[in-house]
Structure prediction request, 260 residues.
Amino acid sequence: MGGDLYALDFDGVLCDSCGESSLSAVKAAKVRWPWVFEQVDAAMEEWIVEQMYTLRPVVETGYENLLLVRLLVEIRIPSARRSSVADGLSIQEILENWLKLKPTIMSEWNEDRDSLVDLFGSIRDDWIENDLSGWIGANRFYPGTADALKFSSSEVYIVTTKQGRFAEALLKELAGIEFPSERIYGLGTGPKVKVLQQLQQMPQHQGLTLQAGHLPTAADLRLILHKLHSVCALLRMAMEGNYVAAMRMRRLENSMTLMP
Prediction:
């Protein structure tokens, strides 16, 4: 049979939605924690949105945007702090330590994932209903991606942590593509790895080569950094003439299973 089976991420691969996600997160955070935003003016909101572009790489699921928005407020306004981590925290430290910071602030703020996911979705729904053009305008497709989807002769699916209805709406309203909803695997359809396995196992996809285009997750990046660190250590020891230590490191690398 032959051919390719494409499974593409949406945010950061097809569509630059950072602006919309950040603005939606600010709207949602105001609803969730109104007292936190009593001292937040328009200038500070603009600063928050600017910082969110920098922090975008740590976001794996949309609701995390709300947490980041509130954390940024706590960094700038001491009287709004209810977490133990905000004092003196820098943007770079958030980028480097988000996986440790997230459970800490979730616990200290007494928040749960499902409630934040539902709120984030409802805020977007309200924005779409009341200002569709404004919501669409806060997103953009990367050059060439819309045409690639329209004219592709291969099997194409979208596998994303975004809620599927929002990806479908943007494809239709912004890119002019009537993309089949059954080909969009959004938030709640399961881990991406399992979705990719399901796609590969479908009878109609037998003989196709899976091509997965997605942004690296935090787990992916940890694995990359771990390997780079180990390779650098191996090279350093080899250059120092410590052949035995270098070989031990190589054997350790070959036998090690990294837990994400």
Summary: Strands lie at 4-8, 15-16, 140-141, 155-159, 184-185, 209-213. The mean pLDDT is 85.
